[in-house]
């Protein structure tokens, strides 16, 4: 039986995780249909949520002892975390300094973008599925399109670039809008990536037949744009990148369901209540919060627990297996 290599988050299938996704809260101010029900969810109690100090301690262990090189803050909505700017400042002070990014719905970025950029946020991905007000309200159940559009512009102006736009297409709502969204992103200098809808919604309402596939997205874009495969290798990046009309602009498609990329995965995940997940779709978690709060575990013990959690990572997410079971935690609580 091979042993866990020291100083790395390795697994038994040859992968090494260097990219850490940290959920800072499970709360959100939108209600995207593919993520949560209209009434929202029972949010995590504040005493269950890691404190800012606890988050930073785990980040320092990840960076200094486990080879993590990129940290992405997510949620829920990470901009709802009161201590976000301070957490980013302290993350940027770690040695070696990790690259710092965030996935956000953009609400509130008009106010916080300059402070986040100053604190050390390198890049942001903003979720925007449509530039039409009626589609936005149908998907997110809130009339906030202009606030998100302004937030994207604020991130761009603050230099957190390239600003990437994440879009999910829903059949019957915005499935005909892919070319329009790409046109808008090209016009503003944002990088668009489409994400296939995954079975991670709290209501368990995902149906394979209803999902808009990567194939359909390509077909819809091909009617208006000339797409050629970008020559650089995709590596561990989930998006397959294409040059638009010969480049340099690109568009990406993250085909998690129809073209899984688990073999190249370099992710490890930490939930807002301090659980390590070795995969978005994992059905088991490893509890680092208890180790932190019992007060007896030193950094080396916590690092070893994290390594053990990653060592057991399965080779793939299994969405396409007949016996697939959706994880109990929804996307908003795992951190997408
Ligand atoms: N609230 C932030 C946001 O929306 O960007 C961060 C958290 S959200 C869970 C992270 C990403 O997951 C977003 O880009 C969102 O569109 C995506 N997402 C949520 N549910 C999804 C699903 N069922 N399938 C595919 N992507 C999903
Ligand atoms: Fe909120 Fe992001 Fe989920 Fe939409 S996808 S409900 S913005 S957590």
Give short descriptive properties of this protein.
two-stranded antiparallel ribbon; binds S-adenosylmethionine; twelve-stranded mixed sheet; globular; binds iron/sulfur cluster; 10 helices; 336 residues; 29% helix; alpha/beta; TIM Barrel
Describe the 3D structure.
- With 336 residues, the chain is of the alpha/beta class.
- It has one domain: Aldolase class I (TIM Barrel, Alpha-Beta Barrel), CATH 3.20.20.70.
- The protein has ten helices and 14 strands.
- The protein has helices spanning 52-65, 84-92, 109-119, 133-140, 145-157, 178-188, 214-222, 288-294, 299-311, 331-334, and strands at residues 9-10, 16-17, 19-23, 70-74, 99-104, 123-127, 164-167, 191-195, 227-229, 240-244, 250-254, 267-270, 275-277, 286-287.
- Strands 9-10-11-8-7-6-5-4-3-12-13-14 form a twelve-stranded mixed beta sheet. Strands 1-2 form a two-stranded antiparallel ribbon.
- Helix 6 links the parallel strand 7 (164-167) and strand 8 (191-195).
- The longest helix has 14 residues, at 52-65.
- It is globular and about 60 Å long.
- The mean pLDDT is 94.
- The structure holds S-adenosylmethionine and iron/sulfur cluster.
- S-adenosylmethionine is lined by residues 28, 34-35, 74-75, 77, 103-105, 127, 166, 168, 195, 197-198, 200-201, 331-332, 336.
